[in-house]
Amino acid sequence: AVVSTQSTGDLNLKMFTVLDVATSIISAVCIKSGLDYSNWLELLITNIQVFTCHCLARYYLGESSKVLGLFVFKAILITGLVLLPLETVKVGLSLLIPVIIYNKTDMVYQHHRHHSTGQLSGTTLFLQWAQITGRLFTTYMAEASGFLPVMAMNWIFQAVFVFQFFIFRESTKRLEGKLRRFHE
User: In whole angstroms, how far apart are CA 92 and each of 42, 77, 98, 99?
Assistant: First the structure.
C-alpha cells in the first residue's frame, strides 16, 4: 500500500522504529543462542522487510535524509548486537516487551478510534498472522520456551489486527480510495 499510493497515510513510524530494533534483537538472540537456522532465518527476512518498509515510509514522507541515518543506525545496532554478550542482548529483549505492548495497544486503539485499519492490507495482515502462527509453532517445537510469551503476545495482537480489518473493512476501502484520488 505504501508503494502503490506513494504515501504513508496513517502508518505509525514509531512502530517501524520499535519493530526494527525488536526484530534485530530477537534475531541476535536466536543466532547467539544457537537455535536452528529455521528459527532465525525467518526473523532475519522479517528484519529486512521491516527495515525496507521503514525506509520507504521515511522516503515518502519526504524524509529521505533520514534514510541514510536509518542505515547508519542499523549498522551500529547490528554491530553492537554482535559484540555484546548473549545475556546483555537478552536483557535488551526483556526491556522491549513493554514498549512493544504499548505500540501494539496504541495501534489497536487507533484502529478502533478511526474505525479503520488505514493502509494495512488484509492480505498482509492475514499472512503476518499465519507467519506468526508458524513461528509460534516452531518456537514451541524447538523448546525455546523463553520466546513463547513474546510469540504468544505477538500472535494475539496480530489476530486482533486481522479481526479489526474485517470489522472496519468498508471504512478502510473508502480511505484507500480517497488516498488514491489525492495522489492522482
Answer: 20, 12, 11, 11
- The rounded distance, in Å, linking the Cα atoms of 64 and 4 is 18
pTM: 0.64
Q: 13: which residues sit within 8 A by CB, 6+ positions away? A: 54, 57, 58, 61
The residues, ordered by sequence, that sit 6+ positions from 27 with a Cβ below 8 Å of its Cβ are: 40, 43, 44, 47
pLDDT > 70? residue 175 = no
Which three three-digit cell numbers place residue 113? 478510534
Hey, how many other C-beta atoms are within 10 angstroms of the C-beta on 12?
A: 17
CA distance 33 to 16: 25
The answer to whether 78 touches 24, Cβ cutoff 8 Å, is: yes
Instruction: Report the mean per-residue pLDDT for the chain.
Output: 79
Using the 8-state DSSP alphabet, how is residue 184 labeled? -
What are 36's three cell numbers? Answer: 536452528
pLDDT in tens, 3-52: 554 445 555 677 778 888 888 887 788 778 777 776 677 777 878 888 88
